Each structure stands twice: as structure tokens, then as C-alpha cells.
């Protein structure tokens, strides 16, 4: 058994290109996915107070379908299925949509858990103080819920970043695609995957540090509080 | 080229779904066995061992499952073994599952109040005896709902074995798609297959969780 990492050196550009793709896919997905989740959580929170509507039921179905099927199948469904229905879609767009829908569903469920622990009395107090439903949702329900479930949210975003390795299977040039590409040229599969796996590990650690930094800023007023 | 009726598609997918189920069971049972040993080591006294287990868990939780599968597949070749997709998928998914279950179960053991430990030790029980008679029975009640919930992740994880050539539900779907060019129908059925396997487990996990809260623990 011999390991030869020097055979990777000519392919630094490919690894960098893949790294850039993985990072920007993750950043866009994190922002858009969390935004989607907030909308879903808002509608479902309304349903909790006023009774289920058709929209809230549909959103509930969306969350369950995403959470109970593999990401790779969701990706294939979008990438192969939409063009067959006459909607042309590029690999990158399919990957992005699949990732956003995925993170959105999981985050909506995480937020729901945080929201349900807000007592009804707080809701009513906010309304009694003259806050609109949107205002009371934002200040009384959403922000405390976020700070409560923030650790789960970090983990979920990391899971989606790691799961994005799968987009290589529809030929998006991400980190994993770069690994497959190099492996097909220099036949040093094990070395390539070892290096790329290490990069993913560093990305996961880095993402967690960034999130923790942002979290300290965002929820600074709650530190040491009862939250 | 032969024509595929909808029934042909469904029949082929059902046949392939067997291997999704078998691989899930292997990964879950193997992962539970390895995960239990890891949990005991993690909770034990030896500091270097605890760190090693923690490193193992962080490693598997911090890297893509797809990479773990590739490494199992290509790593064995480097070591001189000629492994099948079956072996590589079983090993990778077992290790992946063990790391996550170890993390879940550690949390459950830690949730048992430390007074229980002290009481057990004062009564003269050693580490293994306290674990077996006092801590584990209590931790087990807490552990069941998240463990059932994680089984859903295991089933979904087996879909990635398709990438290294293991013919299960997802791989059968891509193969049928190449033969029939009916991606919409096929991947709807594939997704439905996973949903039928996973949704009852998700619901059951949620039911167990509610019942646990109802029982007044925590």
C-alpha cells in the first residue's frame, strides 16, 4: 500500500473551483432556505392560532415529503423530471432549488418546535399591546424561537452543506465533482477522496464558527438571560 | 427496445426496494451494536479513549456520507481488497450510523441526573453495574424516540449507495429512467417508495416523543 499525494498537485485549480462552488451554493442556500422556512413557519403559526387553511396543509405536506425522502431523489426528480414536463432547468439551478427546498423544510420544522414553546399568553399580550400579527410574530415569537433553536439550526445548515456533495451526481462542478474528475485522470481515488473529505471537515468546522460568531452578535441581548 | 408499462416500472422498483430495506437493516443493526460499544467507551473513565470516540463521532458527523462511501470503496482497493459495492456500502453506512447513534445515546445517558450515578456508586456498584442496572434503564426510555427518528436518516442514507453502483431503489430508478425516459413518473414512484418506508417511522418517533413528555420526564 502506497499513498501518493503529489499526484494531486497539478489539479489544485479544479479543487479550488469545486470549493468555490460548494461554498457559494451553501451560502445562497442558507440565506434563502432560512427565509423560506420563516414564511412557512409564519403561515403554519397562523394556522395554529386560527385553524388550518388549505395553504397551511399544503405546506405541512411539503415539509413531510422533503423530510421523508432522500435528497438525491429530490435532486433527480427536479433535474430529470422538470425538463420532461417542458420546463428546462440547468444542473446548477436544479441543485440550488433542491438544496433550498430541503433546508427550508427542515428549518421550518426546527422553528416550529421553537415557536410552539412560546406560550399563548405572550402572543395575546403582544396583541393587547397593539402590535399587529406580523409585528408580534416577529418580535415575540420568531426572534425568541430562533435563539432557542439556534444550535439545531447550525447543525442543519452543516448537514445541508455536507449533503451538497450529492449535486456532483448531476454534474454540478462542486468539490465532490472535482474529486471524481481528478480520480478519473490520475486513478488515485483514495488520496483524492481523503484530501477532499478533509476539506469538507474544515468547511464544517468553519461554518460552525461563523454561525456561532453571528449568533453571539444576533442574540447578544439574551446572553445569560432566561431565553 | 422493449416497452415498459407502468406496472413493469413499479414491479422493478419494488424488487429493488427490497435491497434498500436489507441495507437499512444491516446499517441500523450493525450501527447500533458499534454505537453501543462506543457510547460505553465514551462514558467510561479513560480520557484518551473518550477523546478518540469523540474524534470518531466528529469525523463522521463532519464529512459527507458520500465521501465516506467513496473512501470505503476506494480505500479497500488501496489496501489490496477487492470489495463489492455491497461490502463498501454496508461498512460505510454502519460506521456512519454508529457515530450518530453514539452521539444521541451519549446525550440520553448524560440526561440521567448525576445523583443517580453517585447513589449507585455509594451502594457499591462498579461502573458497568451502575450502567447496567441504574443508568441504562432510565436512559433507554429517553433514547427510544430519537433512535426511531434516526432510523429515517439511515433509510434515506442508503440512497447514496446507488452512487457506488449498489442497485437499490434509487439506482433502479436511474436505470429505469435510462431505459424509458419517463423521469417524472419514475422518480415520483421512487420518492413514494421512500415516503412509504420513512413516514410511518417519523410519525411513530413523534408519537413516542409526545408520550415521553406526557409521562412527565424532564
TrEMBL record, chain A:
Swiss-Prot/TrEMBL keywords: Amino-acid transport, Cell membrane, Membrane, Transmembrane, Transmembrane helix, Transport
Presence of keyword Transit peptide: no
Compartments where found: Cell inner membrane; Cell membrane
PROSITE patterns found in the cross-reference section: ABC_TM1
Topological category with respect to the lipid bilayer: Multi-pass membrane protein
Residue ranges of domain ABC transmembrane type-1 in the record: 19-211
Chain ranges passing through the membrane: 20-43, 75-101, 153-178, 190-211
Family: Belongs to the binding-protein-dependent transport system permease family. HisMQ subfamily.
Protein name (record): Polar amino acid ABC transporter permease
TrEMBL record, chain B:
Key words of the record: Amino-acid transport, Cell membrane, Membrane, Transmembrane, Transmembrane helix, Transport
Ranges annotated as spanning the membrane: 20-41, 62-81, 184-202
Presence of keyword Iron: no
Topology in the lipid bilayer: Multi-pass membrane protein
Gene3D superfamilies reported in the protein's UniProt record: MetI-like
Pfam families: BPD_transp_1 (PF00528)
Keyword Cell membrane: yes
Name of this protein: Amino acid ABC transporter permease
Species: Salinicola rhizosphaerae
